[in-house]
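Much of the work behind modern protein science is quiet bookkeeping, done one molecule at a time. The protein below has been through that process, and both of its lines are reproduced in full.


***
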Amino acid sequence: MKNTDEIWGGVDALGAAFCGFADRIWDTPELAYDEYRSVETQRDMLERNGFRVTRNLAGIPTSVMGEAGEGGPVIAFLGEFDALPGLSQQAGVASCNPMDGTSNGHACGHNLLGGGAMLAATALKNWMAEKGMPGRVRYYGCPAEEGGAAKTFMVRDGVFDDVDIALSWHPGSIMGPFYPASLANTRIDFTFLGRASHAAATPHLGRSALDAAELMNIGANYLREHMPSSARVHYAYMDAGGQAPNVVQSRVTIRYLVRADDLRQLRELVERVRAIAQGATLMTETTVQERVVSAVSNLMGNLPLEDTLFANLTRLGPPVYAPADYDFAREIQETLSAQDIRAAYLAAGVPPRDGSPLCEVIAPREFVPPPFGSTDVGDVSWAVPTVQAWGATCAIGTQLHSWQMTAQGKSGIAHKGMIHMAKVLAATGRDVLQDPVLLDRVKADHAQRLAQDPYVCPLPLDVMPPIGQG
């Protein structure tokens, strides 16, 4: 990798400060909609770097937006900073050792995601100021990506309505284009209501909500054979009605997470799941109430943006790591299985390589992976042309949502991968900003896709962000 681009030099000049910023977010791992310390760290860093700050986007107190510049196109960088429960881990330790004082951990690298996105935004802002280039740069600090769908609420509230393009990235083990393949999903709580009674003396007088929930699960199990192979239906008991087996349980809440390739398939599949819930009530003489908790759309692609980002990826090349980074990566790989390591290569469309534990290649542009999961970036991609990349911030084979990912979140590997991705994003934003023809092509591609399949927000209007419910 050679620093042959002026804006890359601008990223490097800011790199140390933003690595420290990402580390501070790592030090305060907070869950969806409860990221109060983290958002203050975000706000402070935006103000230090000369952004005009807006809080409480879409009524969400842990959201933040920084803007700089005047007139021209609006280039947005999407950052995240929420952590995950149960994945606390000491930094730089290649064995499972949770930290004292918290059970949360940054096991999806969102400390780096937000740090890299804000670093790119700051570098582009500074470059524009030096060149006298009209335009506005925004950094959106988006909370609650892990199941909270904050960006979907923000899209529904019009937060991105005047944005021209949006850029983001995600930590991983192999760098490359983030192909727009994700699953639309919705989370629905089904609360079954029955009638309590003594389970031994008068069981015939009871109507078991727990029976209804279990029958719903059986019905959903049979559904799985008769739905698209890429769709997914998961569930978890939120309230199983108590702990006394001698009581016929009168109330049970079960959460269903339904995923499908696109919003149309999602709507169809959700109706089938709802029908199963109703069937369970008929079999048990119970009733059911439902509440949509969150929902996100599948990702929409944009070929001109993807081509531009990939050109910058290939021009920059893979990250350059230090010998100590390779040593730590080997220690991490000792805790992984051969299947973990092979799966990382296969997911990126890269032939497995022996030897190096770190990314030394770029995933191919033409590889089309299967839908891997869900993200609320999907809704942003329907509202505004959006592109993402995968960054190489950990040992190859590291699984997202694992203690190994948390352990590497403050490492030299993570810092170098974050700075590397900031260069790619900043250069891509710069290319669009200074090329009106490219921006027109980007917008035309987006408009054509929307004309074929108009956006319908998957969140009902009466569903609000679950602030203070964590």
Observations:
- Residues 53 and 177 are 30 Å apart (CA to CA).
- DSSP finds 13 helices and 13 strands in the chain.
- The two ends are 44 Å apart (CA to CA).
